[in-house]
Amino acid sequence: MTYCLDFRERVMDYKAKEGLTFEQTNHHLGVGIRTLFRWNKALSPCRHCQRLATKIDMDALKADIQDWPDDYQWERAKRLGVSQSCIHYALKRLGVSYKKTLKHPKANDQARTEFKEKIAHYESSGQTIIYLDESGFAVDSPRTHGYSKKGSVGMVLRIGMPEDEQMP
User: Fold this and answer.
1) Dist CA 154 CA 163 (whole Å)
2) How far apart are CA 73 and CA 98, in angstroms?
3) pLDDT digits (tens, 9 = 90+) for 95-147
4) What is the per-residue DSSP string for 35-66?
5) How confident is the model at residue 23 (pLDDT cuts 50, 70, 90)?
6) Strand, coil or helix: 83
7) Torsion of CA 34, 35, 39, 42, to 10 degrees
8) The whole model's pTM is what?
9) Cα gap 96→145, rounded to integer Å
10) Beta bridge partner(s), residue 145
């Protein structure tokens, strides 16, 4: 993490005002000597250069993210004809991150409400409720993560699901 510009200015002013050498400033403030030399040359922090994409069409990648927000990077790479690492760096350049979805894709609110009502009815009538573990391996495991712009909520769309059942 970089030091803020205000702190840099104050350190260099302190060094000049007290007439300290770089080594003495290092001992007083605990800032590295190499860092002090760098600040002596230029106080403002260096910015990362934003290189343009050369191997991938960024508009096509944006459209791909809109159409397939839950696809893996290797799937995008195969579709767009580039490597997975190319997709990784392009997603970083676009400011897109991998997010966990907030709802299971097969969740059914109506069925859940009916189940809760049945349980409440059984409990009120004094019947014993026995839970059995019927978990197993699903052939079509749901994708719980998807890509979306940083600062926005992720959306996962599944092929074959009705539009009203798609996740927000």
Assistant:
1) 16
2) 10
3) 888 877 777 777 888 999 999 999 999 889 988 888 776 666 566 666 777 77
4) HHHHHHH--SPPPPP-PPPSSS-HHHHHHHHH
5) very high
6) coil
7) 80
8) 0.46
9) 13
10) 100
Q: Locate 45 and state its tokens.
A: 């922090």
**Tokens standing for residue 157:** 């769309």
Is 160's pLDDT higher than 50?
Answer: no
pLDDT at 80 over 90: yes
101: three-class secondary structure by DSSP:
coil
Tell me the C-alpha distance between 121 and 115, whole Å.
Answer: 10
pLDDT at residue 139, as a whole number: 61
* Cα 29 to Cα 14: distance, rounded to the nearest angstrom: 10
Residue 6 and residue 21: Cα distance in Å, rounded? 20
- For the chain, domain boundaries: 5-41, 50-132+144-159
Identity of the amino acid at 75: E
Mean pLDDT of all residues in 148-156? 70
Both tokens of 92, joined, read 């970083």
Where are the alpha helices (H) located in 68-143, listed in sequence order?
A: 73-80, 84-94, 109-124
